[in-house]
């Protein structure tokens, strides 16, 4: 019985938080020029529709043109009481009077005193304020400067969030609910498949290039895909095409011959051919990018993507063309080169 009462208590608290957030957002949309926004996959997302933008200036233009008189009614059901709502206050003013209100706190106090808005307390812990700019960003709490929004958001979660009681020890990302932290930690673990000593298994080193793979299976996969090195070849019974990996053969059959995608993302409805593709796709819906390049400060959702990115800075051209003297940082660049300049050679699908 106690667990049931605890669940009921948690639902009540969440309902109260959601009501409080709704009241604040209603005041923001009706009485101010503050712009709520979202952030995912290294892009600024419109709070009211599905449009995304690399530059915050484009988001601001879109918001003014398309959602100047936006209302909250249709968005209330999608509000999550355990999430932080991001606000751009770089162009903040009261729509009802000429009173200057430079901060969210002053705005809420102003509409309470002058325009008879009533809130259950003055807390706005579920909101982060930013002054978005394409020319650099500053933390409005401590003044620290950032070139990109991703690192600033991580900084805010780590040092200035009042409701994020659960922090990730690996990257500093903050969460209101413990289960959100657990989901986030699972991403870290899946990206850091190491042995018991925390070191990469020496047996998983590629014998033909500096690549280190997480498992022996991934090393075999790497040898087959990157170096065309495999003792087994799998033939498609429909078109006789050869593959170095059985998984590639199965994927080929699904794509080319069956043409049916069995796995659907429950968040956006996107369909893919296998479970691994679905897992990778779902990362796009996560707002966290815990892996930051120490050179350019760009942030990534996967550790492996960061490792690939670092090669650009070191000019690590490990993928050499066997037909000429060209070498490339990324395997995809090598594949494009072969397709354009050596198309007479056998290619893997």
Automatic annotation (TrEMBL):
Gene3D superfamilies: Classic Zinc Finger
Domain C2H2-type span(s) in chain numbering: 137-165, 166-193, 234-262, 263-290, 291-318, 319-346
First-listed, main subcellular location of the protein, grouped into a coarse class: nucleus
Pfam family, one: zf-C2H2
One of the record's GO molecular function terms: DNA-binding transcription activator activity, RNA polymerase II-specific
Record's signal peptide: none
Protein name (Swiss-Prot/TrEMBL): (African queen) hypothetical protein
Lineage of source species: Eukaryota, Metazoa, Ecdysozoa, Arthropoda, Hexapoda
